[in-house]
Backbone:
Protein backbone atom coordinates (compact mmCIF):
# COMPACT_ATOMS: atom_id res chain seq x y z
CA UNK A 1 0.00 0.00 0.00
CA UNK A 2 1.32 3.43 -0.90
CA UNK A 3 2.07 5.87 1.90
CA UNK A 4 1.00 9.24 0.51
CA UNK A 5 3.27 12.12 1.51
CA UNK A 6 3.30 15.37 -0.42
CA UNK A 7 2.19 15.34 -4.04
CA UNK A 8 5.75 15.88 -5.21
CA UNK A 9 7.20 13.14 -3.00
CA UNK A 10 4.62 10.59 -4.05
CA UNK A 11 4.84 11.28 -7.78
CA UNK A 12 8.64 11.22 -7.64
CA UNK A 13 8.62 7.88 -5.83
CA UNK A 14 6.18 6.24 -8.24
CA UNK A 15 7.92 7.63 -11.32
CA UNK A 16 11.22 6.15 -10.20
CA UNK A 17 9.67 2.81 -9.23
CA UNK A 18 7.83 2.33 -12.52
CA UNK A 19 10.72 3.60 -14.62
CA UNK A 20 12.99 0.97 -13.13
CA UNK A 21 10.59 -1.89 -13.87
CA UNK A 22 8.62 -1.01 -16.98
CA UNK A 23 8.62 0.83 -20.30
CA UNK A 24 5.77 2.52 -22.14
CA UNK A 25 3.64 5.39 -20.97
CA UNK A 26 0.51 6.21 -19.04
CA UNK A 27 -0.66 9.26 -17.10
CA UNK A 28 -2.91 8.98 -14.05
CA UNK A 29 -4.48 12.13 -12.63
CA UNK A 30 -6.78 12.30 -9.61
CA UNK A 31 -7.52 14.47 -6.59
CA UNK A 32 -7.01 13.53 -2.96
CA UNK A 33 -9.30 14.94 -0.29
CA UNK A 34 -7.65 17.93 1.41
CA UNK A 35 -4.51 17.45 -0.67
CA UNK A 36 -3.21 19.18 -3.77
CA UNK A 37 -4.12 17.57 -7.09
CA UNK A 38 -1.66 14.76 -7.56
CA UNK A 39 -0.48 13.87 -11.04
CA UNK A 40 1.35 10.58 -11.27
CA UNK A 41 3.28 10.07 -14.50
CA UNK A 42 3.84 6.34 -14.54
CA UNK A 43 5.76 4.49 -17.27
CA UNK A 44 4.17 1.09 -17.70
CA UNK A 45 4.57 -1.55 -20.37
CA UNK A 46 1.59 -2.64 -22.41
CA UNK A 47 1.94 -6.11 -20.92
CA UNK A 48 1.42 -4.66 -17.45
CA UNK A 49 -1.77 -2.81 -18.47
CA UNK A 50 -4.40 -5.53 -18.66
CA UNK A 51 -7.72 -5.81 -16.93
CA UNK A 52 -6.36 -7.67 -13.92
CA UNK A 53 -3.38 -5.43 -13.25
CA UNK A 54 -5.25 -2.22 -14.03
CA UNK A 55 -7.78 -3.19 -11.40
CA UNK A 56 -4.91 -3.94 -9.00
CA UNK A 57 -3.39 -0.50 -9.56
CA UNK A 58 -6.78 1.13 -8.97
CA UNK A 59 -7.27 -0.92 -5.80
CA UNK A 60 -3.89 0.14 -4.42
CA UNK A 61 -4.55 3.81 -5.18
CA UNK A 62 -8.06 3.73 -3.73
CA UNK A 63 -6.81 2.09 -0.53
CA UNK A 64 -4.10 4.72 -0.25
CA UNK A 65 -6.56 7.58 -0.68
CA UNK A 66 -8.89 6.10 1.90
CA UNK A 67 -6.03 5.52 4.33
CA UNK A 68 -4.84 9.12 4.09
CA UNK A 69 -8.10 11.04 3.81
CA UNK A 70 -7.88 11.70 7.57
CA UNK A 71 -5.09 14.27 7.81
CA UNK A 72 -5.00 14.09 11.60
CA UNK A 73 -3.63 10.55 11.43
CA UNK A 74 -0.78 11.42 9.05
CA UNK A 75 2.48 11.85 11.00
CA UNK A 76 4.65 12.43 7.92
CA UNK A 77 4.41 16.27 7.87
CA UNK A 78 5.47 16.43 11.54
CA UNK A 79 8.49 14.23 10.93
CA UNK A 80 9.37 16.15 7.75
CA UNK A 81 9.34 19.42 9.70
CA UNK A 82 11.30 17.97 12.61
CA UNK A 83 13.97 16.52 10.32
CA UNK A 84 14.20 19.59 8.09
CA UNK A 85 16.95 21.14 10.21
CA UNK A 86 19.26 18.31 9.16
CA UNK A 87 18.62 19.08 5.48
CA UNK A 88 19.24 22.77 6.13
CA UNK A 89 22.52 21.95 7.89
CA UNK A 90 23.69 19.98 4.87
CA UNK A 91 22.80 22.88 2.57
CA UNK A 92 24.76 25.32 4.74
CA UNK A 93 27.82 23.06 4.92
CA UNK A 94 27.94 22.57 1.15
CA UNK A 95 27.53 26.30 0.62
CA UNK A 96 30.27 27.33 3.03
CA UNK A 97 32.78 24.81 1.66
CA UNK A 98 32.08 25.68 -1.98
CA UNK A 99 30.93 22.14 -2.76
CA UNK A 100 28.14 23.25 -5.07
CA UNK A 101 30.80 24.91 -7.23
CA UNK A 102 32.87 21.73 -7.06
CA UNK A 103 29.98 19.52 -8.22
CA UNK A 104 29.00 22.04 -10.90
CA UNK A 105 32.46 21.79 -12.47
CA UNK A 106 31.73 18.20 -13.48
CA UNK A 107 28.53 19.12 -15.34
CA UNK A 108 26.28 16.29 -16.46
CA UNK A 109 28.95 13.68 -15.71
CA UNK A 110 28.31 14.37 -12.07
CA UNK A 111 30.38 13.77 -8.99
CA UNK A 112 30.61 10.43 -7.23
CA UNK A 113 30.27 9.94 -3.50
CA UNK A 114 33.90 8.78 -3.35
CA UNK A 115 35.16 11.81 -5.31
CA UNK A 116 33.39 14.26 -3.03
CA UNK A 117 34.44 12.36 0.10
CA UNK A 118 38.07 12.54 -0.99
CA UNK A 119 37.78 16.24 -1.88
CA UNK A 120 36.07 17.22 1.40
CA UNK A 121 38.07 14.75 3.54
CA UNK A 122 34.89 13.14 4.81
CA UNK A 123 33.91 9.53 5.32
CA UNK A 124 32.07 7.89 2.43
CA UNK A 125 29.16 7.11 4.73
CA UNK A 126 28.70 10.74 5.79
CA UNK A 127 29.16 12.01 2.23
CA UNK A 128 26.55 9.61 0.89
CA UNK A 129 24.08 10.60 3.61
CA UNK A 130 24.48 14.30 2.85
CA UNK A 131 24.15 13.80 -0.90
CA UNK A 132 20.99 11.74 -0.41
CA UNK A 133 19.67 14.58 1.79
CA UNK A 134 20.28 17.07 -1.02
CA UNK A 135 18.56 14.77 -3.52
CA UNK A 136 15.47 14.63 -1.31
CA UNK A 137 15.58 18.43 -1.08
CA UNK A 138 15.67 18.89 -4.86
CA UNK A 139 19.28 20.13 -4.93
CA UNK A 140 21.02 17.11 -6.49
CA UNK A 141 19.99 14.55 -9.10
CA UNK A 142 21.38 11.01 -9.44
CA UNK A 143 23.01 10.77 -12.85
CA UNK A 144 24.63 7.34 -13.00
CA UNK A 145 26.85 5.15 -10.91
CA UNK A 146 30.42 3.92 -10.59
CA UNK A 147 29.56 0.23 -11.00
CA UNK A 148 31.37 -1.42 -13.98
CA UNK A 149 28.90 -2.77 -16.58
CA UNK A 150 28.12 -6.42 -15.95
CA UNK A 151 28.99 -8.96 -18.63
CA UNK A 152 26.31 -11.23 -20.04
CA UNK A 153 27.31 -14.15 -17.83
CA UNK A 154 27.15 -12.24 -14.56
CA UNK A 155 24.00 -11.77 -12.56
CA UNK A 156 22.69 -8.26 -12.06
CA UNK A 157 23.40 -6.69 -8.71
CA UNK A 158 21.81 -3.81 -6.91
CA UNK A 159 23.66 -0.51 -6.83
CA UNK A 160 24.83 0.54 -3.38
CA UNK A 161 23.96 4.10 -2.37
CA UNK A 162 27.70 4.79 -2.03
CA UNK A 163 28.17 4.10 -5.75
CA UNK A 164 25.91 6.77 -7.25
CA UNK A 165 27.00 9.92 -9.06
CA UNK A 166 25.15 13.21 -8.63
CA UNK A 167 24.78 16.53 -10.45
CA UNK A 168 23.09 19.81 -9.57
CA UNK A 169 19.48 20.38 -10.55
CA UNK A 170 18.89 23.41 -12.82
CA UNK A 171 17.46 25.41 -9.91
CA UNK A 172 20.44 24.57 -7.70
CA UNK A 173 22.78 25.64 -10.49
CA UNK A 174 20.89 28.93 -10.81
CA UNK A 175 20.94 29.85 -7.12
CA UNK A 176 23.76 27.91 -5.41
CA UNK A 177 26.70 28.27 -7.81
CA UNK A 178 28.65 31.27 -6.60
CA UNK A 179 29.22 33.04 -9.94
CA UNK A 180 25.54 33.05 -10.90
CA UNK A 181 23.61 36.35 -10.75
CA UNK A 182 21.35 36.20 -7.73
CA UNK A 183 23.23 33.35 -6.02
CA UNK A 184 22.00 32.96 -2.43
CA UNK A 185 25.14 31.30 -1.04
CA UNK A 186 26.43 34.51 0.63
CA UNK A 187 23.11 34.84 2.48
CA UNK A 188 23.45 31.30 3.83
CA UNK A 189 26.33 32.43 6.04
CA UNK A 190 23.88 34.19 8.36
CA UNK A 191 22.17 30.91 9.31
CA UNK A 192 25.13 29.26 11.04
CA UNK A 193 24.25 30.56 14.48
CA UNK A 194 20.50 30.06 14.31
CA UNK A 195 19.49 27.39 16.83
CA UNK A 196 16.57 26.53 19.10
CA UNK A 197 18.63 27.75 22.07
CA UNK A 198 19.27 31.14 20.45
CA UNK A 199 15.59 31.56 19.55
CA UNK A 200 14.56 30.67 23.11
CA UNK A 201 17.01 33.19 24.58
CA UNK A 202 15.94 36.01 22.27
CA UNK A 203 12.23 35.28 22.83
CA UNK A 204 12.53 36.41 26.45
CA UNK A 205 10.40 39.51 27.04
CA UNK A 206 13.08 41.19 29.19
CA UNK A 207 16.00 40.28 26.93
CA UNK A 208 17.88 43.26 25.51
CA UNK A 209 17.80 43.07 21.71
CA UNK A 210 21.06 43.97 20.04
CA UNK A 211 21.09 44.95 16.37
CA UNK A 212 22.87 42.03 14.73
CA UNK A 213 23.26 43.92 11.45
CA UNK A 214 25.21 46.82 12.95
CA UNK A 215 27.28 44.57 15.21
CA UNK A 216 28.75 42.61 12.29
CA UNK A 217 31.12 45.45 11.39
CA UNK A 218 33.08 48.22 13.11
CA UNK A 219 32.16 51.80 13.84
CA UNK A 220 28.44 51.04 13.84
CA UNK A 221 28.32 49.96 10.19
CA UNK A 222 27.50 46.48 8.80
CA UNK A 223 30.42 44.36 7.63
CA UNK A 224 31.30 43.34 4.09
CA UNK A 225 30.13 39.81 4.93
CA UNK A 226 26.73 41.09 6.04
CA UNK A 227 26.30 43.32 2.98
CA UNK A 228 27.26 40.42 0.71
CA UNK A 229 24.72 38.25 2.52
CA UNK A 230 21.98 40.82 1.96
CA UNK A 231 22.97 40.96 -1.71
CA UNK A 232 22.46 37.19 -1.91
CA UNK A 233 19.13 37.42 -0.08
CA UNK A 234 17.62 40.23 -2.14
CA UNK A 235 19.17 40.15 -5.61
CA UNK A 236 16.79 37.68 -7.26
CA UNK A 237 13.75 39.46 -5.83
CA UNK A 238 15.08 42.80 -7.09
CA UNK A 239 15.76 41.34 -10.54
CA UNK A 240 12.30 39.78 -10.68
CA UNK A 241 10.16 42.61 -9.30
CA UNK A 242 11.95 45.76 -10.52
CA UNK A 243 10.70 45.41 -14.13
CA UNK A 244 7.14 45.11 -12.78
CA UNK A 245 7.27 48.52 -11.09
CA UNK A 246 5.77 51.48 -12.93
CA UNK A 247 8.78 53.80 -12.79
CA UNK A 248 8.58 55.20 -16.32
CA UNK A 249 7.96 58.71 -14.94
CA UNK A 250 10.47 58.45 -12.09
CA UNK A 251 13.62 60.52 -12.43
CA UNK A 252 15.61 59.77 -9.27
CA UNK A 253 15.39 56.49 -7.34
CA UNK A 254 16.99 56.62 -3.86
CA UNK A 255 17.62 53.26 -2.16
CA UNK A 256 17.39 54.16 1.56
CA UNK A 257 19.66 51.96 3.69
CA UNK A 258 20.34 50.12 0.46
CA UNK A 259 23.41 48.10 1.46
CA UNK A 260 24.95 46.77 -1.73
CA UNK A 261 22.40 48.81 -3.68
CA UNK A 262 20.96 45.78 -5.43
CA UNK A 263 17.42 47.19 -5.48
CA UNK A 264 18.60 50.50 -6.93
CA UNK A 265 20.89 48.79 -9.45
CA UNK A 266 18.20 46.44 -10.74
CA UNK A 267 15.61 49.24 -10.90
CA UNK A 268 18.00 51.38 -12.96
CA UNK A 269 18.66 48.44 -15.27
CA UNK A 270 14.93 48.00 -15.78
CA UNK A 271 14.37 51.76 -16.26
CA UNK A 272 17.64 53.08 -17.72
CA UNK A 273 16.38 56.67 -17.96
CA UNK A 274 16.50 56.97 -14.15
CA UNK A 275 19.28 58.17 -11.91
CA UNK A 276 19.88 56.08 -8.83
CA UNK A 277 21.42 56.73 -5.42
CA UNK A 278 22.35 54.28 -2.67
CA UNK A 279 21.88 56.18 0.58
CA UNK A 280 23.98 54.42 3.22
CA UNK A 281 26.32 54.84 6.16
CA UNK A 282 29.79 56.13 5.36
CA UNK A 283 31.34 52.73 6.09
CA UNK A 284 29.05 50.95 3.63
CA UNK A 285 29.42 53.35 0.67
CA UNK A 286 32.73 51.82 -0.58
CA UNK A 287 31.06 48.39 -0.65
CA UNK A 288 28.09 49.78 -2.59
CA UNK A 289 30.47 51.47 -5.04
CA UNK A 290 32.07 48.09 -5.75
CA UNK A 291 28.69 46.65 -6.68
CA UNK A 292 27.92 49.69 -8.84
CA UNK A 293 31.19 49.14 -10.67
CA UNK A 294 30.45 45.43 -11.20
CA UNK A 295 27.13 46.43 -12.82
CA UNK A 296 28.88 49.05 -15.02
CA UNK A 297 26.44 51.70 -13.82
CA UNK A 298 28.88 54.36 -12.59
CA UNK A 299 27.32 56.88 -14.98
CA UNK A 300 23.81 56.56 -13.55
CA UNK A 301 24.13 55.23 -9.96
CA UNK A 302 26.03 56.76 -7.03
CA UNK A 303 26.51 56.11 -3.32
CA UNK A 304 25.58 58.93 -0.92
CA UNK A 305 26.80 58.83 2.68
CA UNK A 306 24.28 59.60 5.39
CA UNK A 307 22.21 58.24 8.25
CA UNK A 308 18.56 57.54 7.55
CA UNK A 309 17.58 58.08 11.19
CA UNK A 310 19.75 61.07 12.09
CA UNK A 311 19.59 63.14 8.90
CA UNK A 312 16.67 65.62 8.90
CA UNK A 313 15.70 64.77 5.30
CA UNK A 314 16.62 62.22 2.66
CA UNK A 315 18.56 63.16 -0.50
CA UNK A 316 16.16 64.85 -2.94
CA UNK A 317 14.31 62.36 -5.16
CA UNK A 318 10.88 61.48 -6.50
CA UNK A 319 11.04 57.84 -5.38
CA UNK A 320 12.35 56.37 -2.12
CA UNK A 321 12.88 52.61 -1.84
CA UNK A 322 13.28 50.52 1.29
CA UNK A 323 14.50 47.05 0.32
CA UNK A 324 14.52 44.64 3.26
CA UNK A 325 14.75 47.62 5.62
CA UNK A 326 11.47 47.94 7.51
CA UNK A 327 11.55 44.38 8.83
CA UNK A 328 14.72 45.24 10.80
CA UNK A 329 13.09 47.91 12.97
CA UNK A 330 10.09 48.38 15.25
CA UNK A 331 6.86 50.04 14.17
CA UNK A 332 7.74 53.43 15.65
CA UNK A 333 11.09 53.58 13.86
CA UNK A 334 9.53 52.50 10.57
CA UNK A 335 6.82 55.12 10.78
CA UNK A 336 9.46 57.79 11.35
CA UNK A 337 11.31 56.64 8.21
CA UNK A 338 8.15 56.76 6.12
CA UNK A 339 7.23 60.20 7.50
CA UNK A 340 10.69 61.42 6.47
CA UNK A 341 10.23 59.90 3.01
CA UNK A 342 6.85 61.62 2.62
CA UNK A 343 8.26 64.97 3.72
CA UNK A 344 11.33 64.60 1.47
CA UNK A 345 9.28 63.96 -1.67
CA UNK A 346 8.32 66.90 -3.90
CA UNK A 347 5.05 68.67 -3.12
CA UNK A 348 3.66 67.59 -6.49
CA UNK A 349 4.05 63.92 -5.64
CA UNK A 350 6.29 60.92 -5.79
CA UNK A 351 6.48 57.30 -4.71
CA UNK A 352 7.72 55.02 -1.99
CA UNK A 353 8.54 51.38 -2.77
CA UNK A 354 8.99 48.72 -0.09
CA UNK A 355 10.51 45.29 -0.77
CA UNK A 356 9.54 42.73 1.87
CA UNK A 357 8.51 39.13 2.44
CA UNK A 358 4.90 39.44 3.59
CA UNK A 359 2.94 37.49 6.14
CA UNK A 360 -0.28 36.45 4.36
CA UNK A 361 -3.57 38.03 5.39
CA UNK A 362 -4.70 34.44 5.87
CA UNK A 363 -1.89 33.41 8.25
CA UNK A 364 -2.10 29.78 7.13
CA UNK A 365 -1.12 30.82 3.59
CA UNK A 366 2.13 32.51 4.67
CA UNK A 367 5.09 31.18 2.72
CA UNK A 368 7.58 29.07 4.73
CA UNK A 369 10.32 31.55 3.77
CA UNK A 370 8.41 34.55 5.17
CA UNK A 371 7.50 32.69 8.35
CA UNK A 372 11.12 31.64 8.85
CA UNK A 373 12.43 35.15 8.18
CA UNK A 374 10.00 36.40 10.81
CA UNK A 375 11.76 34.09 13.28
CA UNK A 376 15.14 35.40 12.13
CA UNK A 377 14.02 38.89 13.10
CA UNK A 378 13.40 37.64 16.64
CA UNK A 379 16.96 36.37 16.96
CA UNK A 380 18.83 39.04 14.98
CA UNK A 381 16.94 42.34 14.84
CA UNK A 382 14.20 44.41 16.48
CA UNK A 383 11.56 44.02 13.78
CA UNK A 384 9.17 41.59 12.12
CA UNK A 385 7.61 40.64 8.80
CA UNK A 386 4.41 42.56 8.09
CA UNK A 387 1.09 41.81 6.50
CA UNK A 388 0.34 43.97 3.46
CA UNK A 389 -2.64 45.45 5.30
CA UNK A 390 -0.38 46.49 8.21
CA UNK A 391 1.97 48.33 5.86
CA UNK A 392 -0.98 49.93 4.11
CA UNK A 393 -2.28 51.21 7.43
CA UNK A 394 1.08 52.79 8.34
CA UNK A 395 1.46 54.34 4.88
CA UNK A 396 -2.05 55.81 5.03
CA UNK A 397 -1.38 57.28 8.48
CA UNK A 398 1.72 58.98 7.05
CA UNK A 399 -0.26 60.41 4.13
CA UNK A 400 0.46 58.05 1.22
CA UNK A 401 -2.30 56.80 -1.09
CA UNK A 402 -2.88 54.48 -4.07
CA UNK A 403 -1.47 51.45 -2.25
CA UNK A 404 -0.43 48.54 -4.49
CA UNK A 405 1.16 45.13 -3.89
CA UNK A 406 3.22 43.60 -6.71
CA UNK A 407 4.16 39.92 -6.42
CA UNK A 408 5.55 37.11 -8.55
CA UNK A 409 5.42 33.32 -8.13
CA UNK A 410 9.18 33.32 -8.77
CA UNK A 411 10.05 34.93 -5.42
CA UNK A 412 8.64 35.01 -1.87
CA UNK A 413 9.15 38.79 -1.88
CA UNK A 414 6.59 41.44 -2.78
CA UNK A 415 6.96 45.10 -3.73
CA UNK A 416 4.61 47.49 -1.97
CA UNK A 417 4.09 50.81 -3.77
CA UNK A 418 2.34 53.93 -2.50
CA UNK A 419 2.14 57.49 -3.80
CA UNK A 420 2.21 61.01 -2.43
CA UNK A 421 -0.68 62.78 -4.13
Residues:
Amino acid sequence: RLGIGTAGETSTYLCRWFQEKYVGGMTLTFSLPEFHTLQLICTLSSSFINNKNTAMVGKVINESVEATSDNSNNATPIFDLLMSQSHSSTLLIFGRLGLFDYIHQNGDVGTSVQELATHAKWSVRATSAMMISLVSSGILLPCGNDVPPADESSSSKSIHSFEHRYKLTPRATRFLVSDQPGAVTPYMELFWDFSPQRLLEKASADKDKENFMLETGVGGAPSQTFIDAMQGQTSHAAMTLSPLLNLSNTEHFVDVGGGSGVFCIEACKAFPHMKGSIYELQGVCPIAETYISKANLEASVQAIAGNMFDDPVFPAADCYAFGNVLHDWNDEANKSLLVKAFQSLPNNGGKVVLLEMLVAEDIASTSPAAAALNLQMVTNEDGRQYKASELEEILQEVGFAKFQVISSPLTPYSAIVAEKM
Q: What stands out?
A: DSSP finds 16 helices and twelve strands in the chain.
